[in-house]
Amino acid sequence: MPSTIASFPVLGIVLAVASAAALALGNMMQARGVRSGTTGSFGAKQFFALLRNGPWVIGALLIGGAILLQLASLTFAPLIVVQPVGVVALVFASLLTAHSTHRKPSRTEMRAIATSVIGVAGFVTVAALVSTQRTIHDSQLIAILLTLGVVLCVAVIVALIQRGRRGPAVLIVIAAGVFSGFVATLGKTVILRVQTVLTEQDYSFDSSNLLTLACLIGIAVSGGLSIYLVQRAHTVNSPEVVVGGLTVIDPFVAVVLGITILGEATGAPLWSLLLLAAAGAVAVWGVIDLARAQQRSAGDAALGH
User: Fold this and answer.
1) What is the pTM of this model?
2) SS3 category, 163
């Protein structure tokens, strides 16, 4: 029977909000750098050119800080509590865009932002009340790694099918969000394994350590793919679409894995699961509504010029 590990959800949520703010600002800076420093399709040449682009480098540092803050938040609270807080990044991105363009958010945008915040707040509150952090079994690590392997195979097949064709721009954002969700989930498993070792004071080297090492490799692979795909996404999508896609897909993947494999909602009453589903749907609807409102605003601005 896995033992329960203590958590401090309030501190985890605060760190997750700080991570969301850094993520939003970092993506805005990187989008500016990508659009000013690259032309044509995104490849190795364009990537090395970005290393000399000031805004892009600042954005990369901010995103690196966001990742560290997110990992810190995962140390103090279950995955299904802190990961959905990332949706707040879209709110920060919208406010940053409004500030940079000197345009106040429309009433529809403000309504959509409020809807997302209410949905996330409801989800996180319920999750904090019913979720638990438990030690991780080898079978759970294997399940996550196998799931990642299947996703990688699917991604390769889709890439081969789309080779030489122009697929939906949002597909790149979705793929980046999926791999980002695996980074968070695998990061959480490594954190739990370290916490378990420290709690039980068992420092022996066995097969479990090899699985933990495999998780670290999975983080490197997923993280590298996510970073690459985000840069490609910035060449064909607006910053709001990129941030919006990441903040919806990433938490969705992480929460599903957290509930189904990590067992963070094990023993939770049925009413709480229904509330989690309802609050999640409200948050997603707010994000979709905000994306539509921003597209309408962009179209109106273009017509005005």
Assistant:
1) 0.79
2) coil
